[in-house]
Amino acid sequence: xxxxxxDGTSPKGQQSSCGIVELVDRLSPHQFREWYQNRKWxxxxxxxxxxxxxxxxxxxxxxxxxxxxxxxxxKLVYRQENAPAEQPDPRGIFWFGTRxxxxxxxxxxxxxxxxxxxxxxxxxxxxxxxxxDEGELRIKGATDPVIVDSAxxxxxxTEVKTKSxxxxxxxxxxxxxxxxxAYLVGLSExxxxxxxxxxxxxxxxxSLELKTFHVEFDxxxxxxxxxxxxxxxxxxxADGELPPADPEYDWECRFCSYRTRCGKGxxxxxxxxxxxxxxxxxxxxxxxxxxxxxGNTNESLTPTLAKxxxxxxxxxxxxxxxxxxxxxDIGWDEAEPEGSPICPRCADRDEISSLSLAREEL
Length: 362
Ligand code: SF4
Ligand SMILES: [Zn+2]
Hints:
By secondary structure, this protein is of the alpha+beta class. The protein is built from twelve helices and eleven strands. The chain folds into three domains: 19-52; 75-239, Lambda Exonuclease, Chain A (Alpha-Beta Complex); 277-362, no CATH class. Iron/sulfur cluster binds next to helix 3, helix 7 and helix 8.
């Protein structure tokens, strides 16, 4: 038997089984999540980006980000208006993307320019306006690494994307070409000269293989496809209109975080507005529910989510049921949220009435 001191630890040089159990507990998924969240919060403050820590703000309709050009209008409206996400934030993929760019691509580019009078700059901020049929649009964002001359004037911007595999990539995706075009236009305006060439780099997460594509500026593609798309998107936002469910590529729906809200998930919901947690839908990740309720303090959990995350019910409250038949409010925990919940008061009188949430139906 191992001697332990009063605080449960072993004498010097020995480790009690209790200490090991505690240590293993400190390595739990819950502890990791908490540690990671705190670290991210602290990092944002340290990097002067504390605004990432609160609930997301809603960008102005005329504002565009290069990385979002040509994506499904409806998906973007949901994202920009902070609709609750139905899938976890793919932060592992973002994390890998950053590491790939900083730890591998940056040194690789540096090697490519050694012994020349060229350098690699991490990123260049662009912020410019373009005229569209719907008025002036503003495009803001930061490039990926740019090869520059000794006066730090750009020579060749790059855009780096990571994919699980690059085997099947035979040409750049149009979204990525649009993004690179925005960088070329922004850099041309910023440095008052015409930049027409860029490189799109795809990196494979599994095999660490690369594929690179030389992209040349195509004025017709920029004016007639990209700027038109951005003008149309601004119009949807300004009109408060839900855009059609019509992405350029079908795969967008497969990876979309708003499939159920849009109508591609289950039969109960279709063409829903961006706000509100969907009634009867329990697929939201916990973090997305918390983030949504923190940003919408007048809203509460649905009974379905209260059942899934009981620890959140007290903090955020739960929407009750309402029976239109007997005009009664029914407590959220007085009916089973699955399927079509039935009014217990009507049931006592041998009547079957469906309950809805005691708020605007979603
Ligand atoms: S499910 Fe498809 S159509 Fe609907 S918002 Fe998402 S990407 Fe767009
Ligand atoms: Zn009733």
